[in-house]
Amino acid sequence: VDNDRRDLDMNSRDVDAQKLTRFVRMNELRLVTEYGPVTSIGVMQSSLEFNLLLITDKMSPKHPERMRKFRAAAELYKGKILFILLDSNLKSNERVVSYFQLKKSQLPALAIFHTPDDEHDVLTPDEISVERIQDFCNRFLQ
Prior knowledge:
Belongs to the protein disulfide isomerase family. The chain has 142 residues and is α/β, with parallel strands linked by helices.
């Protein structure tokens, strides 16, 4: 996944079925999953209870830089939070944007969601940065 190879140290004596399963689960997901009709089922069935959405316009000239920062933050929360890209230009994503009570003028936005209890929070920063994403995630997790 993500053109990256991850290796589990099998020489360690403390590798058991549970640790092997966790390693596979953590590394089978992309760092950032793009939300769409095909991936929505996988996102909803993820074992991770926290989802962080970057709701943004993929056609924006700032998109590549936002994604670079979003991926860097995703690496920090691997196995804890599922990072999801939601393209605000797709008509099929309008329902998700309206769920978080966002307007196009408020985008880009970050929306964090706890699946078991539907608790969520939204941040509409002027600029997306790794530090801002970390602060937002840490506040919500606490």
